[in-house]
Amino acid sequence: MQRSRGDELLLGEWACLGILVLKPSHGFALAARLSPKGDVGRVWAMSRALTYRALDQLTNRELIAAVGEEPGIAGGNRTILAPTRRGRAMLRAWLKTPTEHLRDLRSELLLKLVLAEIGGVDSQPLLVAQREQVARISAVLDGQLDRSQPESDVVTLWRSESARGALRFLDRLIIDA
């Protein structure tokens, strides 16, 4: 997957950074949390190899740094990693920023919500901003459907129904909070 801008992180990198903000840890422990059965992996799963690659990228960008070592179970020492001040600031800003595209709600928004939940971050500002974003998208899509035969434009119809479902989901989370 390519980066569209030099400062942008991939979702797997955000996932690793979000986990490390909670508690400094080593790559093996992060890989366990990012496995399909892990608390974060149920939303964004990554193999151990991709987890270590993400950690390398975060280290190269100086968003995380080694802060110590601990003995490994089956061999050498494990390097303990923690976010840098810049890494923490970037994560805080990202967790407040609504997902831009409707197609990314399932992956990006859910990852933000899970990381906020396990990190004790108030997600209400994100939910309200995300609802406004989806409402704008929904209004545009509804306008496009009004000008055409819905049956003839299945993509717009799909996106419109997805936006409506997302609005119901967001409303429920906002009300329940």
The CATH superfamily name of the largest domain is Winged helix-like DNA-binding domain superfamily/Winged helix DNA-binding domain
Instruction: State the end-to-end distance.
Output: 35 Å
The helicity comes to: 55-70%
Tally of DSSP helical segments: 7
The top level CATH class name of the largest domain? Mainly Alpha
In terms of DSSP E residues, the strand content is 5-15%
Low-confidence stretches: 1-5
- Rounded mean pLDDT score: 91
Quantity of strands, as a count: 2
3D shape: elongated
Major sheet attributes: 2 strands, antiparallel
User: What is the number of domains?
Assistant: 2
Strand order of the largest sheet: 1-2
Helical/strand content category: mainly alpha
Task: From the alpha carbons, calculate the radius of gyration and give it in angstroms.
Answer: 19 Å
CATH architecture of the largest domain: Orthogonal Bundle
CATH fold-level topology of the largest domain: Arc Repressor Mutant, subunit A
Q: What sequence of helices (H) and strands (E) makes up the elements? A: HHHEEHHHH
